[in-house]
Amino acid sequence: MAKRFVLVAGNISSGKTSLTERLGVQLGWQTAYESVEDNPYLSDFYGDMGLWSFHLQVFFLRHRAEQHLILASMDKPAIIDRSIYEDAEIFSRALVSMGNMSERDYQTYRKLFDLVVGRLPSPDLLIYLKAPVPVLLERIRNRGREMELGITGDYLGLLEEFYTSWIAKFDLCPVLTIRTDDLDFVHRPKHLEIIIQRILDKLSGKEEVQF
After folding, report:
1. SS3 per-residue string spanning 157-169
2. CA 70 to chain centre
3. Residue 195 pLDDT more than 50?
4. pLDDT in tens, 56-84
5. 81 is catalytic
6. Distance between terminal CA atoms of the chain?
7. What is the rounded distance in angstroms from the CA atom of residue 90 to the CA atom of residue 93?
8. Which residues, other chains included, contact 155 with Cβ-Cβ below 8 Å and sequence gap of 6+?
9. Domain for residue 62, yes or no?
10. Which of 137, 139, 171, 192 could form a disulfide with 13 if both were Cys (CB 3.0 to 4.6 A apart)?
């Protein structure tokens, strides 16, 4: 298969990491994941979002830009769990909306983001994973991460609104939308096969078949 560079986007607990892991194994693609364990700002951010939101978003911008450049330049197909674009279009906007980032900090961050992203190569495909908010909440509770215990349905719903508006205008590459409450690629191998075929068809330019 020709070299491809793919990004996986979606709300919290939509299945990004699980799908990225499985595609890496099944297709032999290089994978990269969101920085959590080595993130020096994350615990401070959850302790005081208003104080640390700008620092966190700048860290993510550097981290994701580095990932993006490295994987886009590889000679083999590569896939990243979460795109750099979501930080500005989804999470930073949510921080401003909730009063946890000032408009001044957002505008400063956004200008830096636009400068960095404007020099990045475009992906070949964006896979957008989505599921209803109640399903996302149940998954979050089931995986039991302490830092996620305060996530509410209202917050996920706000993120979903931003995702919907962002995806509607995203034009850097083709977008493949997958409902992860309809296709359970974690527990049903046949569903993973269906998703892989949809991805390969989309990358080859074939018309998408809806399931």
Report:
1. HHHHHHHHHHHHH
2. 17
3. yes
4. 999 999 999 999 999 999 999 999 999 99
5. yes
6. 24
7. 5
8. 94, 98
9. yes
10. 139
Closest C-alpha to 120, from 175, 82, 54, 172? 172
CA distance 208 to 4: 18
> Is residue 209 a part of any domain in this protein?
no
Strands 5-10 and 30-32: unpaired
Query: Per-residue pLDDT tens for 77-124?
Result: 999 999 999 999 999 999 999 999 999 999 999 999 999 999 999 999
Confirm if 12 and 156 have CB atoms less than 8 A apart. yes
* Percent residues over pLDDT 90 in the chain: 79
What CATH number is associated with residue 194?
Answer: 3.40.50.300
Given 38, 44, 81, 171, the catalytic residue: 81
Whether residue 10 lies inside any domain: the answer is yes
Q: How far is CA 37 from CA 15, 42, 180, 197, in A?
A: 19, 9, 26, 33
Residue numbers of the domain that contains 178: 5-204
Closest CA to 8 of 156, 160, 123: 123
pLDDT score, position 210: 47
Total-model pTM: 0.92
